[in-house]
Amino acid sequence: MSLKIGDTAPEFKLFNTLKKEVSLSECRGKNVVLLFYPFAFSGTCTKELCYVNGNYALYNELNAVVFGISTDSVFAQIRYKQEQNLTFELLSDYNKDVSLKYNSLYDDFIFGTKGVTKRSAYIIDKEGKIQYIEILEDAGKQPAYERIERCLQGLI
Predict the structure, then answer these.
(1) Which of 52, 100, 113, 118 is paired with 41 by a 20 to 30 Å CA distance?
(2) Would residue 10 be called left, alpha or beta, if left means φ above 0 and alpha means ψ between -120 and 50 degrees?
């Protein structure tokens, strides 16, 4: 089933880089930006997350919590966050449950890999409703940051 603007965002619980379980419902009262990305340590993913990290003050001003989500293990996420000095949390969807719920899973990806997270962006408002969806079939492309930021500004 495809998600659409106005739908209640599917609940999830995933582990962060502190090995602590984080749930979407814990974020009620704040806007949430979910950035699904294929692989830690890859070029385009690093550009994406470093762009967001460099503009993180703006996301804070817009009352938004940002989570990067991939099917990488918690241990890979820990190392990646440290190496890139990211200030927002990375979550491990190693079992692919959340990526599947959010229609963000490639069937086939590079090097014959299957079940890799699609580059996608979701904005969930303070009440848990989806306000923005961008799912990119081409993993070499980046989300439309200006549209994400405009959507968040409209939610203040």
Answers:
(1) 100
(2) beta
Residue 1 banded pLDDT, cuts 50, 70, 90? low
137 beta partners: none
- Spatial CB neighbours of 2, under 8 Å, sequence gap ≥ 6: 103
Angle at 37 between CA 16 and CA 33, to 5 degrees: 65
Q: End-to-end CA distance of the chain, in Å?
A: 29
Quote the tokens at residue 8: 């209640």
- Specify whether the CB–CB gap between 11 and 34 falls below 8 A: no
The structural domains of the chain, with segments of one domain joined by +, span: 29-141
Q: Which residues pair with 15 in a beta bridge?
A: 21, 92
Q: Tell me the C-alpha to C-alpha distance, in Å, between residue 92 and each of 37, 58, 128, 133, 154.
A: 11, 25, 21, 20, 29
**pLDDT tens digits, one per residue of 66-113:** 999 999 999 999 999 999 999 999 999 999 999 999 999 988 777 777
SS3 assignment, position 27: helix
User: What is the assigned CATH class of domain 29-141?
Assistant: alpha beta
d(CA 71, CA 38): 7
